[in-house]
Design goal:
This protein has seven helices and three strands; from the N terminus they run αααβααββαα. It has a three-stranded antiparallel beta sheet with strand order 1-3-2. The chain has one domain: Arc Repressor Mutant, subunit A. The longest helix has 25 residues. With 153 residues, the protein is mainly α. Helix 2 crosses helix 6.
Length: 153
C-alpha cells in the first residue's frame, strides 16, 4: 500500500499562520532589524548588545550561567562572544574550575553600553509607545510564560 501523498503547500497554507515557532521567528527578525538599525551608530548589533548588557548585569559570570540565562547552547554563546572578545568588550578567561570559562565585561564594554543605551532607549520607547504600555507588559509576560511551557517547567 502506497503512503498518502503529503501536500506540503496545502498544509502550510492551512497551518502555517498558526505556527507559534514560525510566527515568533518572523517577529524576532523584524524586531531585530529595527533595533539593529537604531543601534548602527554604536557599532554593535541588537543581539550583541543584549549579550553584553546581560553579561554586565550578571557581573563576572560563567559561560554555563550566561548560556542558561540567555537560553542558548554553549557553542552558540561562544560563537556570539567571539566578536565581542575581539573588540575588547568582554574578557573570557579560565574560571575557578579549569574546565569553566568566566566572562567579564571590560571597561570598553561598559563604555559601549553607556553610549549605546540612548540609541536602544529611543528604539524601545518607539516600540512601547506604538504598541502600547499595557499591551507590551502582557506580551512580555506571555513570552516568559511560553519559555516556561516549552522548557517543561
Amino acid at each position: 500500500m502506497m503512503p498518502r501523498k503529503f501536500d506540503v503547500a496545502a498544509r502550510l497554507k492551512k497551518e502555517g499562520p498558526l505556527c507559534c515557532c514560525g510566527n515568533l521567528r518572523k517577529a524576532v527578525r523584524a524586531v531585530t532589524q529595527f533595533y539593529d538599525e537604531a543601534l548602527r551608530a554604536s557599532g554593535v548589533r541588537a543581539s550583541q548588545l543584549g549579550l553584553l548588557a546581560t553579561s554586565n548585569a550578571l557581573g563576572a559570570t560563567t559561560m554555563n550561567r550566561l548560556a542558561d540565562f540567555m537560553v542558548m547552547d554553549r557553542t552558540t554563546l561562544t560563537r556570539n562572544l567571539r566578536p565581542l572578545e575581539k573588540q575588547g568588550l568582554v574578557r573570557v578567561s579560565r574560571g575557578a574550575d579549569r574546565r569553566e570559562r568566566e566572562i567579564i565585561v571590560t571597561r570598553e564594554g561598559q563604555e559601549l553600553l553607556a553610549n549605546a543605551y540612548p540609541l536602544w532607549q529611543k528604539a524601545q520607547t518607539k516600540v512601547v509607545t506604538t504598541f502600547g504600555q499595557k499591551r507590551m507588559q502582557r506580551f512580555l509576560s506571555d513570552l516568559s510564560a511560553i519559555v516556561v511551557v516549552v522548557q517543561g517547567e
